Amino acid sequence: MDQWYVYELRDPTNGEVFYVGKGQGDRIDDHEREAEKAKNNSSEEEEDEKITKLERINKILQKGDEVIKIVIGRYKTEAEALAVESTLMHWVYGHPNQVSNSSLTNIQSGHSHKNIRVRDYFGEVEGLDIDRTPRQTGQYTADLEESNKKYNVAQNLKNIEGALVKHNIPENEIIDKSYRANNPSIYIKIGNYANIQLLLRGSSSGNVIINIRPSGANEESIKSFLELHKNWSIRNQVEDIKGSKNDKYFKLKYVKFINYKDINKLCEIILKIRNGDF
């Protein structure tokens, strides 16, 4: 068992977390021992953190309750434990030095807390957020194009398209082909409100991702698509809707992707989806 751990102290009356700490051995039990001493030996020199924390513990004990002590995780090194402790303090629960409605009694800030986002703040943080410059310069797209070329994505999609036609899927139902670097796909129409997307990105896996998407991006198309998903005859075979407001899709539960080389199996799956008997 790894010796370092991160823990929480909770108030049993409402489940509220009032302290986050890290330690080893029986460190998690030290606070109650400190509270007992503080009750008998009040000192003006006690740190504010201990006074607040220990008073909370004593109030719980005086009611005949017990402090809820929970070990959150165990770690091989103190550095790992410090990182988790600090993330819980600042991002999950909010440190009282940073947010006004924190439930924590911790006074000392967490280790390297300047590298951790403040709870409930979703704006850009300099030095924390990911640098998107490569995408802006076109390097990201260039890398995708190189990868797609390396793994013959365009030709493999054409082979899949030919196989679909041979498996009696009408050419006019293969409604769109996109060879864009980030989204190389074939789209097959199913009914009036949905399309099957076969997405093949340049990678050594060669897996074709199967998504079911609405036939259009307008409000009416998306509404009809959501109804289709809700009432589809193979509803128990599909996942919940994913994506953003204007980019909805869902996957099959048991066949989320298949290797492009297994074309016959891929075509059989598409036919079953199209016919609603998957």
Task: Please explain how this structure is put together.
- The chain folds into two domains: 4-115, GIY-YIG endonuclease (3-Layer(aba) Sandwich), CATH 3.40.1440; 143-275.
- The chain is 36% helix and 21% strand.
- The chain contains eight helices and ten strands.
- It has a five-stranded antiparallel sheet with strand order 4-5-6-7-10.
- A hairpin with a 2-residue loop joins strand 8 and strand 9 (247-249).
- Helix 1 crosses helix 2 (48-62).
- The two termini are 47 Å apart.
Secondary-structure map:
Blueprint: E1 4-10, E2 17-23, H1 30-40, H2 48-62, E3 68-75, H3 78-93, H4 133-137, H5 139-150, H6 153-166, E4 174-178, E5 185-190, E6 194-200, E7 207-214, H7 219-231, E8 242-244, E9 247-249, E10 257-259, H8 263-275
Antiparallel strand pairs: 1-2, 1-3, 4-5, 5-6, 6-7, 7-10, 8-9
Helix pairs in contact: 1-2
Tell me the domain tally: 2
- SSE order, as H and E? EEHHEHHHHEEEEHEEEH
Overall pLDDT score: 84
Helix and strand composition category: alpha+beta
How many extended strands? Answer: 10
Low-confidence parts: none
Strand percentage: 15-25%
Strand order, sheet with most strands? 4-5-6-7-10
Radius of gyration: 28 Å
Number of helices: 8
Spatial shape: elongated
Biggest β-sheet strands, sense, barrel: 5 strands, antiparallel
